[in-house]
Specification:
2 copies of one chain form a homodimer. Chain A is of the alpha/beta class and 269 residues long. In chain A, 28% of the residues lie in helices and 18% in strands. Chain A has 10 helices and 10 strands. The first copy, chain A, has a 5-stranded parallel β-sheet, with helices on both faces. A 5-stranded mixed β-sheet of chain A has the order 6-7-10-8-9, with helices on both faces. In chain A, helix 7 links the parallel strand 6 and strand 7. Chain A starts with 6 loop residues before the first helix and ends in a 13-residue tail after the last helix. Chains A and B meet through helix 2, helix 5, strand 5, helix 6 and strand 6 of A and helix 2, helix 5, strand 5, helix 6 and strand 6 of B. Strand 6 of chain A pairs antiparallel with strand 6 of chain B, so a sheet runs across the interface.
Chain lengths: 269, 269
């Protein structure tokens, strides 16, 4: 029994996870406090929870012990499920009449292949519900006391994936948009992407930050400039999972940090 | 007594809203199921809840009756609080030792002036916590069964505000980024912005959608092309609040709609 056991039952208007259906839900960035009530309702109702590596243990701990947890992500040193394996498994579980929660870190539709899974479910005739979540990029900015937007500073915000199909991606048009860029899954390609952004004339002194393990006990924050970001990340051993943000908004952090009760402190060089 | 009264008390590790502190929290797009557990904890603990017009009544109904609700937003036909009034009020409430929840629609740092409020609090020496939320743009896409990202379709996603200081904003660099654009607060300037995007050579036949009142009982969805979007919106009387999304991802909706248990149906012309 967890302290949460009766919560779903107490809420009015809670959606019902039906046998044979799949909920594609965002688990948020890590902190269980950033889970949505609907995702919690899914945890409470599911027969089986198919989760990624980045779903926090504290979130999974909110499921009743009767729920079966299935890991379906990529993690160093263990055989990885392919995307085809995962979607086939979701379809098989649904067809077996299970109530399936597919739980993904952040928001399921933001760089998480949730769209592919939804299309595979639809093609197989399996009913699904999408439960959006707090996306890691916005959670990381909030955790670092960096406003995503501020009048007079930016009118737009660009989310981009640093990793994925098409490594020949042209970063110049995004760089030339002149707006802050929030990068997901970027650490393995950080040097190449930073070089591309500098080549596209983003100023070398543009403030930049890395927020690793945002909203978890392992959270670390590095504030630097675009030019020095890679050296600093190497020196301080910043590794995935991490969000990188590049733009003037990063410099606002200085004005907020002293009064913020939640923002993490900087890693020191 | 609401059905929620004891939830905050039952959760382990819940952050404590201290007298004299302000939590800047996102209320999500409307549906109380998309509220985070931390925002709910704020509703449960606050002495006073200072909320915007777009915070859903069903969310506010989760506060105990002892909490005082203060409206501090802009709404047609009523005198609007200025941003300076709002920040002064937050500071005054905190200095009076109140536990203050500043509740904003969506995510507090995304086009919601949460950054300005945080800076005013910091300048006044008032401690605050930022609680990110499910941003309206991502919630609207999920509600409409439009994946925000899909491999092979897009590698980035641009959020932009259609309204705000600087109406001479140059849309061409964003348009040329070649990635889907999600527009907030856009309905009053829709014709001008669509014209700018067409001038910047986004194809006239690019799929586009409007999601009004996403995740509320008033939700309506319009799917069209960039070229025809304004005429369709006028004919079907689409009004704020609404999210507009422009890009190939919109066409994926057709493949998902039949199997989605949550996605709203189209408004008909």
């Amino acid at each position: 029994m967890t302290a949460w056991d009766s919560i779903a039952a107490r809420r009015e208007g809670v959606p019902v996870l039906m046998p044979g259906h799949v909920w594609l839900a965002g688990a948020g960035p890590g902190d269980p406090g950033l889970l949505t009530l609907d995702a919690l309702a899914g945890l409470q109702q599911a027969d089986v929870i198919v989760h990624d590596a980045l779903v926090d243990r504290r979130v999974l701990a909110l499921a009743p012990k009767t729920a079966r947890l299935e890991f379906a992500g990529k993690r160093g040193g263990k055989p990885s499920a392919t995307q085809a394996d995962i979607t086939a498994r979701l379809v098989a579980l649904a067809r077996a009449g299970q109530r399936v929660l597919r739980l993904k870190g952040g928001d399921p539709f933001v760089f998480g292949r949730g769209g592919e899974e939804a299309m595979a479910l639809a093609a197989a005739g399996v009913c699904f519900r999408v439960i959006p979540g707090v996306t890691a990029g916005l959670a990381a900015l909030a955790a670092a006391a960096i406003p995503a937007t501020l009048r007079g500073i930016n009118r737009a915000l660009i989310f981009a994936a640093g990793h994925g199909a098409g490594e020949d991606f042209d970063w110049a048009p995004l760089a030339r948009a002149g707006q802050p860029i929030v990068l997901y899954m970027v650490m393995h390609n950080l040097e190449r992407i930073v070089a591309s952004l500098l080549e596209a004339d983003i100023a070398a002194q543009t403030p930049a930050a890395i927020i690793a393990w945002a909203t978890t006990p392992k959270e670390r924050i590095l504030v630097s400039t675009l030019e020095e970001l890679c050296d600093a990340a190497r020196e301080l051993r910043f590794e995935p999972p991490a969000i990188v943000v590049i733009g003037k908004i990063v410099s606002l952090r200085e004005r907020l940090l002293g009064a913020s009760e939640s923002a993490g402190k900087d890693a020191r060089r």
